[in-house]
Amino acid sequence: MVLLMATTWWLGRGPREPVFKGRKLSWWLTEPKEARSSPPQPLTEEELRSLGPAAVKWLGYMAGQSGIEDIEEPSSQNSVIQYLWGWHQNWFGEGATRFSRLRFESVAALGDIGPDAAPAIPSLLKAVRCPQHDTRLVAAQSLMRVGDAAWPAITSTIRNGDRRSRWLLLDHIEILWSSYEVPWRRPANFQPADFARTMNFLIPLTLDADEDIRACAKRQTESCIKWWSEEPDGNEGIGLMVEGMERFNPAERQVAALVLISIDYPSRPAEAIQRLIPLAKTGDPLTRAHLLGALAVLDTGNTAWADEIHNLEKSADPQLSEALERALIHFGL
């Protein structure tokens, strides 16, 4: 009875819960998946969006809630503390399980709603720090699915958040550029400017002080460039990425050089050179020198690009001389 009263009070103190086809949204999020025979289908993404801002507000409220099950088991072996912990589990375990399921489904539903769920971004960030492992994972996924509006929150948390949240969001950032639906396709809202922004965010993280963040950033950088290099508008995005490299320090530029070399894969360096040379003709001096440095370490096995490199040598920019010299020596010119 006490649990029932507490649950009724807890559910009634937040925003008004939306109703769909005569049933509360909480029922649609949990009960259809629990039914044993002839279950009604859970709400589709379109049906969730049709509920409008009121649903986002309520789902965001639920996603940001803390529950009894968030209390971790005490490490103390004191018999009194262990007895109280066991009492707590016996009395509140079932209610906590229902709450946990509803919070999880609320977080997932916000991801299904997508960009319209932007007002719930603070709640999703809180859910990323949830003690429940599965809720953290789906919260990271939902943040990515919100799209552009979540980008500042995502990048700020990866740069400055706690270690677990940093790694979790970085590990899920691939959702921005890849879709695992059949057939695989690039999300419609991931355009050349988004690719450049993402790469120029990831590259400095490959030099992060945290070893796990460095490894994850390197993996995601390789994944992003692999996906993008196969896109029809790949050159446009790569050009924008090079423009953004003007803000990099020398160490970050070196990482970017290795990334650029990997475009079209190391087994096809001639195609990589076809992209690097046009980019090396434009941009600020440091970026051009950097790209020429990338050209210098490509091993094509021939001098087919000698004329192009000689044309670059005509530049009057003194900052290019050292990189040009390295490139010309490499190609035996």
Description of the structure:
- The protein contains 17 helices and 2 strands.
- The chain has helices at residues 2-12, 25-34, 45-50, 52-63, 79-113, 121-128, 133-146, 151-160, 163-172, 192-205, 211-229, 234-244, 250-262, 269-280, 285-296, 306-313, 321-330; strands at 19-20, 23-24.
- Helix 10 runs antiparallel to helix 11.
- It is 65% helix and 1% strand.
- The longest helix is centred in the N-terminal third of the chain and has 35 residues, at 79-113.
- It has 3 domains: 9-21 and 49-66 and 99-150, Leucine-rich Repeat Variant; 177-263, no CATH class; 266-333, no CATH class.
- The model is unreliable at 1-5 (pLDDT under 50).
- The protein is mainly α and 333 residues long.
- It has a two-stranded antiparallel sheet.
Topology, pairings included?
Elements: H1 2-12, E1 19-20, E2 23-24, H2 25-34, H3 45-50, H4 52-63, H5 79-113, H6 121-128, H7 133-146, H8 151-160, H9 163-172, H10 192-205, H11 211-229, H12 234-244, H13 250-262, H14 269-280, H15 285-296, H16 306-313, H17 321-330
Antiparallel strand pairs: 1-2
Low-confidence sequence ranges = 1-5
Strand order of the largest sheet: 1-2
Fraction of residues in helix: 55-70%
* Overall mean pLDDT: 75
| SSE sequence, one letter per element | HEEHHHHHHHHHHHHHHHH
Query: What portion of the residues fall into strands of 2 or more residues?
Result: under 5%
Number of helices: 17
Count the E strands: 2
Shape: elongated
Count of domain modules: 3
Q: Over all CA atoms, what is the radius of gyration?
A: 26 Å
Task: Report the biggest beta sheet as strand number plus sense, adding barrel if it closes.
Answer: 2 strands, antiparallel
Secondary-structure-derived class: mainly alpha
Amino-to-carboxy terminus distance: 87 Å
